[in-house]
């Protein structure tokens, strides 16, 4: 069994910063790509950022230059540094990863709420 646990969400004022953390645990052989998604009320879930096992990254256009995804493969952990936060960044943020156990699984975390408001 594999578990993804997110942390680091909360309430922040516009222009502020938060750092999300997602740690994977369980019978992990290898983790390939790791991703952060978000879902705002009444909207579809969208891919915010992704990072491959080789360190290549991809970002949603609206967060480029403000968000940074990184990973610590030794700790099976992915991070999302969010700076210059805007009210439109308010959403539940979910961690997602392709994990070999040794069967390949696409796993999701439970989500962490990020609220940007004055």
How would you characterize this protein structure?
- The protein contains no helices and eleven strands.
- The radius of gyration is 14 Å and the shape is globular.
- The model has no long low-confidence stretch (mean pLDDT 96).
- The N and C termini lie far apart (40 Å).
- Strands 2, 4, 5, 6, 9, 10 and 11 form a seven-stranded mixed beta sheet that branches. Strands 1-3-8-7 form a four-stranded antiparallel beta sheet, with no helix packed on it.
- It is 0% helix and 58% strand.
- It is mostly beta strands.
- The relative contact order is 0.33.
Keywords:
mainly beta, seven-stranded mixed β-sheet, four-stranded antiparallel β-sheet, 11 strands, 118 residues, globular
Order of helices and strands: EEEEEEEEEEE
Number of helical regions: 0
Strand content: over 45%
Main beta-sheet strand count, sense and barrel state: 7 strands, mixed
From the helix content, strand content and strand pairing, which structural class follows?
mainly beta
Radius of gyration: 14 Å
Task: Describe the global form.
Answer: globular
Give the low-confidence spans. Answer: none
Report the strand count: 11
Estimate the helix proportion, in percent: under 10%
Overall mean pLDDT stands at 96
Termini separation comes to 40 Å
Short synopsis of the structure:
The protein is mainly β and 118 residues long.
SSE topology sketch:
Blueprint lengths: L1 E6 L2 E3 L5 E9 L3 E10 L6 E6 L5 E3 L7 E6 L4 E6 L8 E10 L3 E5 L3 E5 L2
Parallel strand pairs: 2-11
Antiparallel strand pairs: 1-3, 3-8, 4-5, 4-9, 5-6, 7-8, 9-10, 9-11
């Amino acid at each position: 069994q594999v578990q993804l646990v997110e942390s680091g969400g909360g309430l922040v004022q516009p222009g502020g910063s938060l750092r999300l953390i997602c740690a994977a645990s369980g019978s992990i052989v290898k983790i390939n790509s790791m991703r952060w998604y978000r879902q705002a009320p009444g909207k579809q879930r969208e891919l915010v950022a992704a990072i491959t096992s080789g360190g290549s990254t991809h970002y949603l256009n609206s967060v480029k230059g403000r968000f940074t995804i990184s990973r610590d493969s030794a700790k099976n952990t992915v991070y999302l540094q969010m700076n210059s936060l805007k009210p439109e960044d308010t959403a539940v943020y979910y961690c997602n990863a392709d994990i070999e156990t040794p069967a390949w699984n696409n796993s999701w975390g439970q989500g962490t709420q990020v609220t940007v408001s004055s």
